[in-house]
Amino acid sequence: MSYKHLSNTGKTKLIQDQEPWRPIHYLGSKLRILEKIESNLNQITSKDTPVCDLFAGSGTVSSWLGKTRKVTAIDIQEYSRILCSALLSDNKIFIKKNKNKLENQLKNIHKHQSLIVAEPLIEIEENLMSQAKNGDTEQLAMMIESGSLMTAKNDIKNDFQIAMNHCWKQIEKFPKENYLSTMTLRHFGGIYFSFKQAAEIDALLDMAENYIGLEKDLFTAAILATASEVVNTVGKHFAQPLRPRDKEGKVKKSLYNQTSKDRNKSITKNFLYSLEKFCLNYSANFNHEAIRSDYLDYLSSKECNESIIYADPPYTRDHYSRFYHVLETLSLRDDPEISSNKAHGKTMLSRGIYRKNRHQSPFCIRNQAPKAFKLLFSKISEKKLPLVLSYSPYSSEKNAHPRVMTIDQIREIALNFFSKVDIDSVGKFSHSKLNRTALNKEISFDSEYLFICR
User: Fold this and answer.
1) What is the CA 424 to chain-centroid distance, rounded?
2) From CA 238, how far away is CA 434, in angstroms rounded?
3) pLDDT by residue (tens digit) across 228-266?
4) Residue 399, helix vs strand vs coil
5) pTM for this prediction
6) Which helix (H) or strand (E) holds 285?
7) CA 82, CA 75: separation in Å to the nearest integer?
8) Which residues contact 19 (CB under 8 A, 6 or more apart)?
């Protein structure tokens, strides 16, 4: 990846010639139905009407619609706000303006304190990867099972744990103001990323602190896209770390291939690629906004003055925050308390290093979802705004991944607040899943509907 290429992005054909881009791996991404969504919006409003993307997620819908109309992207998660901010901004001049600073920073990334304290762990991990390549995967499996530094502290059993304990002792010597510089290494190194990758992400997050406003959002968004690309999990999500053994306790034959394909990826190369993509991705200058807010708080505010709402609430009982908690922690960089589990009478930190008190959407809870839809429809109808809502139906005849609500239930609630509710089927379409056969239900190809409410 060359900076020369990045700095010439101003001459790139923009808007019409660009393919839609998904910056992170995202469950339920609307990448394949963007034109269908836009078509339904255009049927009930003019093509340049301002729109509110109420559950913005990865920002693909906001970015697509932002080429022709003003967009306000709303989501309760900070990682979503950052991604949408970067996707909705004109970033062409960023590289030209910051080229020399970036070159110097990336050239010296190895000097970052997180990489220095992680050196023993990086060396051990590289040695274990070499052993696994030659057929001895037992020690690599044990390393992955050891979890992150957060769960392995003071648990000395072998050379690897000794190295982890040594790393902790070095980190604890840091001044309080430097402690966050090892946050990714401490929480996610060895479990979601290699120790080297985690330390380099820490270095990039420190670099992001040199910027403010939209430039900081852009820099951080490229870090999030990088983390999503290199993460070493099934399905490229953060719902749970790899399990290196099968049910019988034997190391999986695929372990080396599973780990090496991701843990050998370069953080800096992926970061530069992601940065370039954000700089090439361009939404027209309509003074777009990306706001972190609960959907009800925004709909109740005076700031909500768009002419149409697009809403894409969660479909299943799977809370999205569990799939993206690492991205949220990287975005907030707040060194959060970790949730715990109780098993066999013993309380332990969660294996996935989940944030304690992470967001739980009412749309994912069966007994709360009807009320959530009532409030959603009520607030929008009070504003006298039309609504296009995406939802994936629950097919009771199939062994499909269960949805919280049925299409008929949603339509019945919507008719209490809107005089007309049309339903448009997207047709043959199936959402991405967890890429693990045992967890996947039968695919329902009629899996996306659009409610047009007015």
Assistant:
1) 28
2) 11
3) 999 999 889 999 899 999 999 999 999 999 999 999 999
4) coil
5) 0.90
6) none
7) 10
8) none
